[in-house]
Amino acid sequence: MAAADRFDEVLALLRAHGGRVTAPRRAILRALIDHADHPTAEQLTADVQVRHPETHESTVYRFLDDLERLGVIDHVHLGHGPAVYHFADDTHHHLVCEACGLVVEVPDRALEGFRRRLRSDFDFEMEPRHFAVPGRCRACSESAKVSSG
Ligand SMILES: [Zn+2]
Ligand SMILES: [Zn+2]
Ligand SMILES: [Zn+2]
User: Fold this and answer.
1) CATH 3.30.1490.190: which residues of the chain?
2) Does domain 3-87 fall into CATH 3.30.70.580?
């Protein structure tokens, strides 16, 4: 979705649900849209504070909660660190390299075979949306092989 469309659409949704649209909230939404990858609340707060230094981190968290409740965004845990945020309509999962932190986004269908297997063999419905799948990227697994001999 084009950034301008998304910005207007989310603000309209917020207003429709009685949410306040303040200048800091607009700036938080803008920062969220402008982030190329998955920002933490702390990163978003720092972005917004450039132009709205009075914005407190708790304001950012509250707004992110509101957006999450409206189904606009989701949070994901990539590892030990704080949660990161992304837009909910772009369905994907995350592979994260435990050595270098590289995040690979994979489409839902990439997990289809494994999902079917878990369903048929273990009566389990896999929902890996909330957490990343940990592992090693190619560069890190190759350098591990070299250093181990
Ligand atoms: Zn969580
Ligand atoms: Zn994501
Ligand atoms: Zn890596």
Assistant:
1) 92-147
2) no
The model's pTM is 0.87
Which residue, among 39, 120, 123, 118, has the nearest Cα to 81 in the 3D structure? 39
Q: Which residue has the tokens 């890996």?
A: 128
CA dist 76 and 94 (Å) reads 9
Alpha carbon of 129 to ligand 1 centroid (Å): 10
Determine the distance separating the centroid of ligand 3 and the alpha carbon of 91, expressed in angstroms. 23
Fold annotation for 92-147: Dna Ligase; domain 1 (3.30.1490)
Q: For ligand 3, an ion, list residues with CB under 5 A.
A: 97, 99-100, 102, 137, 140
Q: Identify residue 116 by its one-letter amino acid code.
A: R
Q: Give the tens place of pLDDT for each residue, 10-24.
A: 999 999 998 889 999
**Centroid of ligand 2 to alpha carbon of 20 (angstroms):** 26
What secondary structure letter does DSSP report for 80?
A: S
